[in-house]
Design a protein that fits this description.
The protein has 274 residues and is α/β, with parallel strands linked by helices. It has 9 helices and 8 strands. The longest helix is centred in the first third of the chain and has 27 residues.
């Protein structure tokens, strides 16, 4: 009888240790991607999804954070932007609060990505956090998807070699040549400056169709009158078949006096860059 009691006690402790080990392993694994985040980053057409950033340090005019950021968030969603990006915690929260209001509507909420030193404060608001690659998985948050910022092929390989690696890792990079080193199972984001000469960001996105999942233009919105106009232009140029030098539709220069006529041909130029 004593032997039976001792055996039962051993089994109980073994079960407890197994549960603790399982919980520990789970804490080191990457969170599962939400359907909204995955769908926003990957388009069935293989055209790149477009992410637009809003950075407070590049803001050229004073913004009423409450109303202007709500309006910016809503209008970016309406013109087809797939995800939003910021490095400011308060801006991240305000974007997320506004995007939630679109639940059940079309277009639905756009995910909000955060990148910055205060990422722990943004975990409650963002849909994913962008972090530089670190070989120590314990340094990563366990309750939000991670987008790994990588700069070399070896960084990509190292992420795939992590203990409990993500089943569908997300990489972000600025070097287009890294696209050829990506595993088929990953989601990938190329980052490029907004409003380049000759619309080079559009040309880059088109050249990477089928090779990467999305393009991020982190400095696209600075608080001036061209924010939504530019977002509309890049979404239409990248995700539609017409050329990046085609006429603008919808929010055109004839509306705000930037240039003449509903149909303006040739390379798009921006007052912000003059």
């Amino acid at each position: 009888k004593l032997l039976t009691h001792s055996t039962a006690k051993q089994k109980m402790w073994m079960k407890l240790l197994f549960l603790l080990a399982s919980a520990s392993a789970l804490s080191l694994s990457s969170p599962t991607l939400s359907m909204n985040l995955a769908d926003s980053l990957i388009k069935p057409s293989k055209s790149l999804s477009v992410g637009i950033g809003s950075l407070p340090e590049s803001t050229t005019s004073a913004m009423n954070l409450q109303s202007d950021l709500q309006s910016l968030s809503m209008n970016l969603r309406k013109v087809g932007v797939s995800f939003l990006y910021t490095n400011d915690v308060d801006r991240c929260r305000r974007f997320k609060d506004e995007q939630i209001t679109a639940a059940g509507s079309f277009p639905g909420p756009a995910p909000v990505l955060y990148e910055g030193e205060e990422y722990e404060a943004a975990l409650s608001f963002c849909d994913a956090v962008i972090l530089p690659f670190d070989s120590s998985p314990s340094s990563y948050p366990a309750n939000v998807p991670i987008i790994y910022r990588v700069s070399t092929p070896s960084c990509i390989s190292s992420v795939l070699s992590l203990p409990n690696p993500p089943s569908q890792p997300i990489f972000i990079f600025t070097d287009p040549s890294l696209a050829s080193h990506l595993p088929e199972s990953c989601i990938s984001i190329i980052e490029a400056p907004a409003m380049q000469d000759s619309n080079s960001e559009v040309t880059l996105a088109r050249s990477l169709k089928g090779k990467v999942s999305a393009i991020l233009l982190p400095d696209a919105c600075v608080g001036d009158s061209e924010d939504i106009e530019y977002a509309t232009f890049v979404v239409d140029s990248i995700r539609k078949k017409s050329s990046s030098t085609f006429k603008m539709t919808g929010l055109t220069g004839s509306t705000n006096g930037h240039f003449g006529g509903i149909a303006t041909k040739g390379e798009r130029t921006w007052l912000r860059k003059k």
